[in-house]
Structure formats: C-alpha cells, structure tokens
Design brief:
- The protein is α/β, with parallel strands linked by helices and about 230 residues long.
- The chain folds into two domains: about 140 residues, 3-Layer(aba) Sandwich (Rossmann fold); about 80 residues.
- It is built from ten helices and eight strands.
- The strands form two sheets. A six-stranded parallel sheet has the order 5-4-1-6-7-8, with helices on both faces. It has a two-stranded antiparallel sheet with strand order 2-3.
- It starts with a strand and ends with a helix.
C-alpha cells in the first residue's frame, strides 16, 4: 500500500518552543490586578501549581485539558470567578510569552513533501499555539489538518487521536507515516494505531527503536522515499 499521508509532530520536530513560566505567571498576576482582583502573587502561583498537577494527572490517562480549563481551576482555588473573556486573555498572554522557532529546512521539507503527500499535524498541547503559529507564518497552507490535543481532550499515544486524523482525511493506517521526536508518545502512539513511524533523534540518543531514524527534519523526504519503495 502506497504512502498517502504524513503526520508530523510539532514541538521538537518542526519547531523548538520555550516559555519563562515565572514571567508568564507574573503577567497573569498583573492582568488580574488590572481587572480589579487584588490577588497575592505567591498565592496565585500556588494555585497555578495545583492546577498544573491536576493537568499532569489527566495527562497520565492519555487525556488532555485546555489551557482555559487549567487556569479556570487555578482561579477557582482563589475564589476568582472566571469568564470566557478573562480566560481568553490568559491564553493570549501565553501566546505572547511562548517563543517558537522553526528548525532549519522546515519550509523546504514541507514544500517537497506537499508535492506528493497529504500532510497533517498532531501536537500534544493545552494551547492552540501550534495552529496559531502555522497560520501566522503561512505554513498552514501545507496541511490538510492540524490537531492539538486540547481540541479532542485526548493526547498521544492514545490511538484515538491518530484515528481521528485518519478518519477526517479518509486515509487508512497502513497508508500513513507519523514523524516525531518522543518515543513514548509519537512512536508508541503510531505503532498502537498501525501507522509506520519515523523518529527524529536530534541528539543521537540511544533508544530501543530499530525503525527509521533521522537527526533532522531535512532528511525526511529521503526517508519517506525509501519507505515508499519498501512498501509491498
């Protein structure tokens, strides 16, 4: 069966992302004070820490919360009533503080792959930042579908998030390849769904993985070509 779809992870595969959490949470403190809530900064950070621990418990079940749900939980611990506008403001602060930088070759690689295959993104994230970034850079034009785990309430390696993409794009698992940098989420998730997988191993780390491996996204078209030739 020929390869028709390439599913790409976002963070660690197409781009590097980072955020200064202290700076971000301090900006939330200033934002809330501007709305008239005289909350103590340390109490706010404590409530946020509790909400993030809840997030980790949810994620341990291969499920996901939205950023709005996480910070609504934090605000509720402080007795602050949230509104959709307030939570969108907090999400907007996250987008402004989060720094995203594309890896070399990404646009050239996407352009090459786009000529022959359908492309999609699955990103494990409580934010919609990957989709926003792809829209802002114009790279969204290469993708038939961009899914953030927050959209569905499930996250890799849960097979359902892969199955959702396959169903939306009308592709069978055996016709797809997933590319990512996390063995525990990307590789296991693809394998559990019956999808071929390619590991992006930028640091040359040792993994219990004998499948296709690349050091850079620049090498992906060549590896996909080899996988296509080896298909029965």
């Amino acid at each position: 069966m020929m390869i028709r779809l390439i599913i790409l992870d976002f963070g660690g595969t197409l781009a590097e992302g980072s955020i200064d959490w202290d700076e971000y949470h301090s900006s939330i403190h200033r934002y809330l004070r501007g709305l008239g809530f005289n909350v103590d900064l340390n109490e706010l950070k404590g409530a946020i820490s509790a909400a993030l621990r809840l997030l980790e418990r949810v994620r341990s079940r291969e499920e996901e919360l939205t950023l709005e749900e996480v910070y609504a939980h934090a605000l509720s611990r402080l007795g602050i009533p949230d509104t959709p506008e307030m939570l969108e403001g907090i999400h907007g602060l996250f987008r402004r503080h989060f720094r995203t930088e594309l890896y070399p070759c990404v646009e050239r690689t996407l352009e090459s792959l786009f000529r022959r295959y359908r492309l999609a993104v699955i990103s494990n994230t409580m934010s919609d930042n990957p989709r926003v970034f792809l829209n802002q850079t114009g790279l969204i034009r290469y993708f038939g579908l961009v899914v953030c785990s927050r959209d569905l309430g499930i996250r890799k390696p849960n097979p359902m998030i892969f199955q959702y993409v396959l169903g939306r794009l009308g592709v069978e698992a055996k016709e797809a390849v997933h590319v990512g940098d996390e063995p525990e989420t990307d590789l296991q998730g693809a394998q559990r769904t019956g999808i071929k997988a390619v590991l992006v191993d930028k640091e040359g780390r040792t993994h219990d993985w004998c499948g296709p491996t690349i050091r850079s996204i620049c090498q992906l078209p060549e590896v996909i070509e080899e996988l296509s030739k080896s298909d029965p």
